[in-house]
Amino acid sequence: MAMNRERGPLVTFEFTDRDFTRLRDLVRKLTGISLSDQKRELVYGRLTRRLRALGIANFRDYCDFLEANLDHELEHFTNAITTNLTSFFRENHHFEMIAGEPLHDWLLRRLQENGRLRFWSAGCSTGEEAYSLAITLAETIPDVFNRDVKILATDLDTNVVATGRAGIYPENRIEALSGERKRTWFQKGSGDSAGMVKVADELRGMVTFNPLNLMGDWPMRGPFDIIFCRNVVIYFDKPTQATLFDRYANMLCDDGVLFIGHSETMAEICTRFDLVAKTMYRKLR
Ligand SMILES: C[S@@+](CC[C@H](N)C(=O)[O-])C[C@H]1O[C@@H](n2cnc3c(N)ncnc32)[C@H](O)[C@@H]1O
Q: How far apart are CA 131 and CA 121, in angstroms?
């Protein structure tokens, strides 16, 4: 038996092809996430801690447990399976587009005409995307905190939603930001919170974090002016992407914009949008 010097014997858990197929089918049905054969190791690695916590000895028993206790276990399961990589101002060209012409002008016009702007960060992970958007809006829309400008940030993974809502990050998460942005939009922790930063209250007031499975019902009415769904659909198969893009089109206002991730495309999947810039799509009327 292998040994881990700090923790003692390393317990291995039996994980058969059938177990992997059962988990893969469940993940796809419940979350839309499509796991390739190459993800087998990842699934094993991500779930062993959960098996250990539950005192379950092998994956077959865990599959039985999961199916019998979906109400409670689904959250732990999906939290373990999701990949949450993100950062502040990731794929910065999208934020530059929001701050520049012609998109910025369009947003100001919409705000003037409708008295409100609505944004949705769908698959927001730990919140950096939503706060980057909030910073961009705060820096470019006059008096934004006194206007009806709101960002909804949602994710399937309840742990990342809680992190986003708290708005507290290790200081190194913002090291690439300019000194001015750091000073203006983040508060440095001290004492027990040394090494951490907290997002400014005004920005936090603009963003509402909620858990939401994109595969389920969407309780919000919209319409949204801009939706971010970046680096999320890459985990879904094409039919699931097609359904999702169609639902986003239904949720956007006329000429509304959808941003997707750098390795994602709508080509040959959905015809309800026009590609206007790299990974930026405008809803067709
Ligand atoms: C790689 S992160 C992308 C975060 C951010 N949008 C970005 O581009 O930096 C993908 C996120 O999608 C979420 N996700 C995956 N499947 C989902 C689903 N069915 N419903 C909602 N969120 C989902 C994951 O939990 C994860 O936080």
A: 10
- Cβ density class 106-119: b for 16+ within 10 Å, e for less: bbeebbeeeeebbb
pLDDT digits (tens, 9 = 90+) for 168-227: 999 999 999 999 999 999 999 999 999 999 999 999 999 999 999 999 999 999 999 999
pTM over 0.90: yes
Tally DSSP H helices, then E strands, for the chain. Answer: 11, 12
**Amino acid present at 79:** N
DSSP string for 214-225: TTS-------EE
Q: Which residues line ligand 1 (CB under 6 A)?
A: 31-33, 82-86, 90, 123-125, 129, 155-157, 160, 213-215, 230-232, 235, 261
Q: What is the distance between the alpha carbons of residues 116 and 108, in angstroms, rounded to a whole number? A: 10
Confidence of residue 2 (pLDDT cuts 50, 70, 90): very low
Candidates 235, 226, 234; CA nearest to 281 is 226
What is the rounded distance in angstroms from the CA atom of residue 22 to the CA atom of residue 32? 14
Domains and CATH numbers, the chain: 3-81 (1.10.155.10), 93-283 (3.40.50.150)
Residue 277's SS3 state is strand
